[in-house]
Amino acid sequence: MNLLEEFKNIDPNSRELAVLVKLAAFAAMFLLVIVIGAFFDWQGQYDSLKIVKQEEEKLRETFLAKKREAINLDIIKKQLIDTQQSFGPCSSNCRASPRWMHY
């Protein structure tokens, strides 16, 4: 039998419904309960997942910023060496306290 024909042939005065109609109603209620339960039960997990994704994005940005710095570290070290060579080596006193601080 066709399910649509079963619905059309339902006698509202009859206490006995066709087997397919009972199964369809049971399946619909079962799925509805599962979907509603899943929504309410998993809502906290969805919120936690959203927070973790935001944290992951922040960590990814931090990683990329540090990676850019690490890539440029060799260039910065070379500039430091060039600067030290052009101005001469700095004594231990100028590293500890610059001269402009002794007023």
What is the fold's blueprint, element by element?
Blueprint: H1 3-8, H2 19-87, H3 92-96
Describe, in plain words, how this protein is organized in 3D.
The chain is mostly helical. It has a domain at 18-87. Helices cover 78% and strands 0% of the residues. It contains three helices and no strands. It has helices at residues 3-8, 19-87, 92-96. The chain is rod-shaped. The termini are far apart.
Write a short abstract of this structure.
By secondary structure, the chain is mostly helical. It has helices at residues 3-8, 19-87, 92-96.
Order of helices and strands: HHH
How many β-strands, per DSSP? 0
Q: How would you classify the helix and strand content by structural class? A: mainly alpha
Question: Total helix count?
Answer: 3
Largest sheet: none
Percent of residues in β-strands: under 5%
Instruction: Give me the Rg, rounded.
Output: 37 Å
Query: First CA to last CA: what distance?
Result: 102 Å
Query: Which spans have pLDDT < 50 for at least 5 consecutive residues?
Result: none
Write down the overall geometry.
Answer: rod-shaped
Helical coverage, percent range: over 70%
Mean pLDDT: 81
Which descriptors apply to this entry?
single chain, 103 residues, mainly alpha, 3 helices, 0% strand
